[in-house]
């Protein structure tokens, strides 16, 4: 029964309160072969991290409820080191990435190839 059963690859967790951004990210990353899970705010994202530990998190900054930096702080208190990519429309994405202790950042509107290549780099 178990022959040929491969372990499921760890997913890419995408977190954004904007459903159009989520849809665009989901489609692009799924087409590029990643398994994608998603959350609409920081607290949903924390549950997703518990339920299905991701290889990398692509994180919006401004979200109602628990925002990106608050989620990043919680994530960093966990045992597992999860690479974090900030994806934001704020004026100074680099400052937000520093605040979140993130590995990388992208500005909105994001470039499709940039998103895929940064996810590929950290999901390996
Ligand atoms: Mg937002």
Describe this structure as you would to a colleague.
This protein is α/β, with parallel strands linked by helices and 124 residues long. It has a single domain, classed as Response regulator (Rossmann fold, 3-Layer(aba) Sandwich). The chain has 5 helices and 5 strands; from the N terminus they run βαβαβαβαβα. It has helices at residues 19-31, 42-51, 68-77, 93-99, 112-123, and strands spanning 12-15, 36-39, 56-59, 84-88, 104-107. The protein has a 5-stranded parallel sheet with strand order 2-1-3-4-5, with helices on both faces. α2 (42-51) runs parallel beside α3 (68-77). The longest helix is centred in the N-terminal third of the chain and has 13 residues, at 19-31. It is globular, with a radius of gyration of 14 Å. The mean pLDDT is 94.
Radius of gyration: 14 Å
Number of helices: 5
Which structural category do the helix and sheet elements fall into? Answer: alpha/beta
The appropriate CATH architecture is 3-Layer(aba) Sandwich
Strand content: 15-25%
CATH superfamily: Response regulator
Question: Which molecules are bound in this entry?
Answer: magnesium ion
Q: Assembly state here?
A: single chain
Please write the string of helix (H) and strand (E) elements: EHEHEHEHEH
Number of beta strands: 5
Estimate percent helicity.
40-55%
List the helices and strands and how they pair.
Blueprint: E1 12-15, H1 19-31, E2 36-39, H2 42-51, E3 56-59, H3 68-77, E4 84-88, H4 93-99, E5 104-107, H5 112-123
Parallel strand pairs: 1-2, 1-3, 3-4, 4-5
Bound molecules: magnesium ion.
């Amino acid at each position: 029964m178990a022959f040929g059963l491969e372990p499921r690859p760890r997913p890419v967790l995408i977190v954004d309160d904007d459903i159009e951004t989520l849809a665009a990210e989901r489609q692009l990353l799924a087409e590029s072969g990643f398994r994608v899970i998603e959350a609409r705010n920081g607290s949903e994202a924390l549950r997703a991290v518990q339920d299905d530990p991701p290889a990398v998190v692509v994180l919006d900054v401004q979200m109602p409820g628990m925002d990106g930096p608050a989620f990043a702080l919680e994530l960093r208190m966990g045992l597992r080191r999860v690479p974090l990519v900030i994806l934001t429309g704020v004026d100074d994405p680099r400052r937000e990435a520093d605040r979140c202790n993130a590995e990388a950042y992208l500005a909105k509107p994001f470039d499709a190839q940039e998103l895929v290549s940064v996810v590929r780099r950290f999901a390996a």
